[in-house]
């Protein structure tokens, strides 16, 4: 009996050690599918784009022969830095973002505060109604609004003309950018509203009760308690919006079919797309994409840093 107990000790120790190791590796097994997809569809394309940006293709003579690919080093990046089309497209989306992002996040915040208030009824219905535009694919949304913008088809244009209000030109050179901003605001306000609303729901109700006992009004509670406490959610939606602004593509791409005021370099993404598939210059398009990714990182982290400093973090 004593011998059996002695011989069983190493086995028990080994089984416990194996059990601990298995528990330690279990979280990594659950993360493995995400890690593989993240590597294949995020990291690998970035690395490949950086690799492609180091080459260039040239055709000799009249340009009818096969293109020769040669190593160009940082030459493509130097060309992008001196490319006026790239600067114009970046400047256009920055102007777009300066106006559209605050308007969209302001609307999302107001809607979230209204849904979180005690006076609004049918909250589930309105929450779903505000979110429905986000559920519509971006291409479909751009097509729907393109129908409303087209002077030959738009009921808005025909109604304004019938009422003697003139003929609004939603696709003019000075208005097409803001027509695109309207589409993005309509599509993404509900999404950002849900993020802010979820942050509001996480605030303990005891804070509101204490404020009401002290005589605070609903507006005072919203301005001095709710908004400061959902500031992290506002920062998060702000970062998402900055990234989305610099990646603007679907809306201008769809509206090019009905508007002559959207050039091939209207946005950086559109410029990279037409450079690759319109001019067959894939290496320069990869360089534009890499530079745009760097600009996006700088602006996103810069915005995050500024908000952290203001919050005293």
Structural commentary:
This protein is mainly α and 313 residues long. The chain folds into 2 domains: 42 residues; 232 residues, MetI-like (MetI-like fold, Orthogonal Bundle), CATH 1.10.3720.10. The protein is built from 13 helices and 2 strands, in the order αββαααααααααααα.
Name the helicity range: over 70%
Estimate nothing, just give the exact number of structural domains: 2
Number of strands: 2
CATH superfamily of the largest domain: MetI-like
**Helix- and strand-based class?**
mainly alpha
CATH architect. name of the largest domain:
Orthogonal Bundle
Gyration radius over CA = 27 Å
Sketch the major β-sheet.
2 strands, antiparallel
Question: Counting H and I runs of at least 4 residues, what is the number of helices?
Answer: 13
CATH class of the largest domain: Mainly Alpha
